[in-house]
Amino acid sequence: MEAKPESHKLIFEKEGVYLHTNAKRSNQDTTVPGFIRIVERDGEPAMEWSPVEEDARKAPAVFYTKKDGEEGEEETKFDPGYEPDWAVISTVKQQRRQEHPPVRETGQWGSFSLPLSELYSLRRARFSLGRNFLVLTTRGGDPLPPLHFNRGGARELLKAMQRYIRLAPSPMDGRLFLAYPHDSGALSQSFDELHLFDDTSADLVSRFIQDPYATTFGGFSKVTNFFRGALPHTHHESPLSNRSPQDAHCPHPADEEPGFELITCGAELGPRPEVKRGKPLDNWDQFLDPEGRVTDPQKVKELVFRGGIVPSLRREVWKFLLGFYPWNSTTKEREDILRGKTDEYFRMKVQWKSVSEEQEMRNSLFRGYRSLIERDVNRTDRHNSFFSGNENPGLVLLHDVLMTYCMYNFDLGYVQGMSDLLSPLLFVTQNEVESFWCLTGFMDLVHQNFEESQEAMKQQLLHLSILLRALDPELCDYLDSQDSGSLCFCFRWLLIWFKREFSFEDILSLWEVLWTRLPCENFHLLMACFILESQKEELIGSNHDFNSILKHINELTMKLDLQPILCGAEAIYLQLTHCKLPLKVQEVLGLRVPSSSSEESPDSEPKETDTLLTQSETRGKIMVCTTILHAM
């Protein structure tokens, strides 16, 4: 009787998934590129990995078969090459395990096949080598070789797996997930119905789905079959589905391996609308009443956001956008304000002008500010006719306004980059006093960018990461795989609001749009998201690594078209606001006030932002330094 041919159905396939054979023995080749697949063989789903190289396919294969009492031989034990304290779940079927030599041949590993019914757990992990991995463990307690998703795709893999199994997050470890078969009543549940990306489950499952990488392996030995007993209800519903809104904001147990906390921000996106820019504001008088008050400030802001301002009106309207003049002030009141502000400015200017050389020699802080300002003034926008030449009065004004700002805000003083913020203001106002007070209004918006702690910059990079992951998890996965997930290559963009990325004229248009604070205060982050999305094909398609990503982003300078980016950023905002968004994304977009629990805990924010940037601490510092050097 002829054997019945085996039926085979391919459910999912992804190239560029590396098998990590030995993390500790660095003198050996430790990664093997290959394919990850979900297949059905005779109706039974399995996860399979096979190497790309043809000759590697001849290497011994590791097959994981049935449990005791079922057909099939005992699986070969895999020696992962790590310390034994994390390597196995030691209490699972410990009595029946026998020692087998690791399956190796000429440094290569063959394919493995694991029926999904034999999958016990998944764990995201990060080794000290800087790579991120997904580790799967069988019901026999054996970990499979760790898998590194070099080109993303972990999210799609888990979606395919959800057709056959359910993943229950451990209440004790947000990086560990136990696998269960579907109940008969749950077979029709879709991936979304499992609440893997709902706000209520964002703390555990969504954290894992968004980035299956990210943490070290210390303490893995503490994972035992205790968790199965601790989750008696997971066969029926998500253990987090009944959490109250108050519980959703409670802090999680302290992580034994800090530095790789995941940001929960999955979202099911609808279509992105088409957005067109409008005409610039060209009639200012129509918004003034007989006494000179602005009758409809919100309408003015909307027009400016939609189309900007014609150059002839910028000097007047900018003073309202930057708070120099109140919107409800009359013409007479504005004359009085200007006289008072002029007197105040020159009183502060006289203060630093009257400092003698002897005094300055005893004031290292003041001397340092002056030195920095003189150096930066000589290299700020020298291509612009207003600042070009050696004896240009524009340079004197730039210097004097910055020195006076040091007297106005001596705690902050002068920080590199502030000259970039002043030069367009001085160019438009052509006035020392007006440019100074416009600068103080601008600095009220961005002064935290220049503080020594850089907490505000860390927070913005964190918010950018939240938005980008909601929009494009695949791109985020790829950046993570190249140690670029901290997005520090965007540091210069956010520090000085794209001043070095666009032409001088485009910056005038961009900043007046951003000063409206419409449609949200983080609109500049949406712009960054759109730019990164537009570069996705180049970054992933060309397989850029850490250094080439930084180089590519820096080379975008003066190659970006502002108007399509403004349209794209607004389209992203409209797209997101019509979706069910996780709480973190809502907070970044200003759609939700942060929870009171986080407000009451001043230490919570720095901790969260610090963990984002410590993903690659040393390289992150180098990157920040590099981007600043390019910016100045």
TrEMBL record:
SMART domains named among the record's database cross-references: TBC
Protein name (database record): TBC1 domain family member 15
Primary location class: cytoplasm
Organism: Cyprinus carpio carpio
Gene Ontology cellular component annotations, sorted alphabetically: cytoplasm
Residue ranges of domain Rab-GAP TBC in the record: 308-518
UniProt entry tagged with the keyword Protease: no
Location in or out of the cell: Cytoplasm
Region called Disordered, residue ranges: 594-614
Keyword Transcription regulation appears in the UniProt entry: no
Function: Acts as a GTPase activating protein for RAB7A. Does not act on RAB4, RAB5 or RAB6.
Subunit comment: Interacts with non-phosphorylated form of RAB8A; phosphorylation of RAB8A at 'Thr-72' disrupts this interaction. Interacts with ARMC12.
An example Gene Ontology molecular-function term: GTPase activator activity
Keyword field: Acetylation, Cytoplasm, GTPase activation, Phosphoprotein
